[in-house]
Amino acid sequence: MDQDIVRFGFTAFVTLLVVVDPPGVVPIFVALTQNQQDRRRAILTRAVLIAFGVALFFLIAGRAVLSFLGVTVHAFSISGGALLFIAALPMLFGERGGLQSPQSEDCDPAADDISVFPLAMPLLSGPGTIATILLLTSQVGSDMRRLGAIGVAIAIVFIISFITLYLGSRLMRLLGEGGVNIATRVMGIVLAALAVQYVLNGITGYYELLSRR
């Protein structure tokens, strides 16, 4: 397989994994399902499938959305990078990314069905995930191999998310709150660096476009 495709797919995987942030979702998922432990697997399965479906929709429709809005690749690269940087800031302090976190009143363990809201959206496929997918699709052009690489990256991220959340209570005991906070901070640093790179790529691409005119 082309090394550029592999590199692009790996970048997409890392970016999406950091944005979704499965370790950061674990404490919320455990708290939401503390009174529904016998239904945790069913709730989690439905939530992950719904989140995966939402992500695939924006993967397929992403280019059409950007084209309809008249947004250039470089403009979305800059704005998307800035958006992801904002999402990374709370993570640096051990909190969930601001674009993925539900409001406190949304986290109601007594809710009848939490698999759709807030688990699938916005915890797993929130605005941050959607913006990241649109940002990645804006870079593929008509290259179906890169689009396929993003699809594979999305699938792997949600498989990892399922496994992480399924083992959530064990991970909480193993890592403790401090371990989860450390993992979230590390992911925040990685996401901030990726966000800056997207902004730099957008600026560079824009000036290269101007130089050709």
Q: What is the residue-mean pLDDT, rounded to a whole number?
A: 84
Strand content: under 5%
- Secondary structure: helix percent: over 70%
Work out the number of β strands.
Answer: 0
Which geometry do the CA atoms define? globular
Low-confidence stretches: none
| Topology order in helix (H) and strand (E) letters | HHHHHHHH
The first-to-last residue Cα distance is: 35 Å
Main beta sheet, described? none
> Number of helical segments?
8
Helix/sheet category: mainly alpha
Q: How would you describe what is shown here?
A:
This protein is mainly alpha-helical and 213 residues long. The protein has one domain (3-211). It has 8 helices and no strands. It has helices spanning 3-20, 22-32, 40-69, 73-91, 115-124, 127-137, 144-166, 168-211. The protein starts with a helix and ends with a helix.
Brief summary:
The chain is mainly α and 213 residues long. The chain has helices at 3-20, 22-32, 40-69, 73-91, 115-124, 127-137, 144-166, 168-211.
